[in-house]
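Handout, section B. The chain below has 463 residues.
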Amino acid sequence: MRNNRSSSFFVGVIFVTLFVVNAAAQKAGNVSVKESNVRAGMYFLAGDALQGRGSGTIFERIAAEYVGSQFMQFGLEPAGEKGADGRPTFVQTVEVPGREMVSNIAIGGAYTKPAVFGTDFVAYSVSAKQISGPLQKLKPGASATRGSIVLLMLGPDEKFDQAAIRKLQQEGAAAIMMAETKESRENWAMVAARRSPVLSRAPFLLSVSTATVASLDALADGSTIEINAMTAPSAKTYTWNAAGKITGTDPKLSSEVILLSSHLDHLGVRENTPGDDKIFNGADDDASGTVAVIELARVLAAGKKPKRTIYFVAFGSEEAGGHGSRYFADNLPFPQDKFVANLQFEMIGRPDDKVKADELWLTGYERSTLGPELAKRGAKLVLDPRPEQNFFRRSDNYTLAAKGIVAHTVSSFGLHTDYHKVTDENKTIDFEHMTKSINSMVGPINWLVNSDFKPMWNEGMKP
C-alpha cells in the first residue's frame, strides 16, 4: 500500500541521491550496457520518490537535473541554458505560454444546463466565445457541412480518431463535439491536459460526456445549436529538457548532428484515481526510453569520439502536448540543414509479442531509408506491427518529422494494459529484454555517427 508523503521530504531525498556518484569508471573501447546501470536509472526515475514525473512539475525538473548530472559524469558537453555562474548547464528551462482556458460551457437548445469543467467536457481548442450552427450527428469518416456543429458519434469501444477530426476540420465544421469513450472517461484529467498539434489547430473542439450526447442526440439534425464559452487566463508554466552533446571530430562531418532522444515526463499524481495508489510511475512510458538515452550516452562517451556530433536530449512535457520537443525544434542549437536524423526511444521496457523476442520496431519504418540502413548494420529493427495505432505521430519524433527531419521512434510497446495506468511500475519491466535492446542499438548507432550516410524520406512518405 502506498501513500503520498510531502514533496519537501522527497525533494531532500532526491537531491542527496543526485550526488551519489557511480564509482564504476568505464574504460574507452569495448563498452556495453550493464543491467545494473539500467536498473539503477529505472529505480530512480520510475520510483515513488519522483511522484510520476508529472509534466511541468518540480519532479519533472528533478528528473531533468538527474539526467543532466549523468551526462556530466560521462564527460558530455553541456547543451542547456547558462547557469547562475554564466556557464552552460545540462538543462533547458522552457516556458509554456499561458493561454485562455475554458472554465465553463453552456450548450443551447434542449440542453441548457452549464457543463462543469473536468466533469462533462474537455476543451481541446476554443476559437470563439460564442458559436452557433446547424447540428450534424456523424460517424467517423462522414462528411461535414461547412459551418455546422458536428457531434462525432463514437461507439463505446471506439478509439479517438485524429484523422476523422482532421477531415471534419478541413471540411469547415465550425465546432466538433466528440462523444466520450470508456478510455477517455477513465483518463479524463489526462485527456484534458494533452494538446496535440492536430487538436490545437481544430476550430472549436470538445470531448463531451454521455449525458451531453444524449441531450444532443434527442435533437433533429439541422437543429440550431449555440455554444457559449467562459474563459479565464491560465498561469504561465514551465517544462524542462535535459541536453548534452559529444562534438564530432571529423572536419567534414562534425557539423552534422544525430539526435538520440526520449521524454522525461509522465502523468504524475492523480488524486481522483480509485484505490490507494495515486502515482503514475511511468516505468515503461517513458523512463525506459530515458534510461536508454542515458546508457547510450554512457557507452558512446566511453569510446572513441565520433566523426559526427551527437546530441542526447530528454524532452519535458510530451504527455502535455510535446512542449519540450517543440521548443527544441523551434530553437535548434545548430543549422537545420545539418540535422541528419533523430531516433526517439519510447517504451522499450517489455517485449512485444507481435515481433521476435529480440526485435524492436521503428515507427514509420517504411517512410525513410533510415530503418533499413540501420538494420543492415545489425540493428534488430522491424516494421511497426500495429500501423493502425499511428504511433509514428504519437511521440516527440513527429514534432521534428513535421519540419522535414528524418525522425522515428524505437519501441517494443505491445499494447500492454498498464499503459497510462498506476500499474506501469518497475516490477513490470523485463530488465534483461531492456538491456539487450539498448545494447543492440550501440553498434548501428556507432556506425551512423561515424558514416557519411544521410537518410532520406521515401517518395510520397514525408509528413
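Note. The first strand starts at residue 77 and ends at 78. Compare this with the example in section A.
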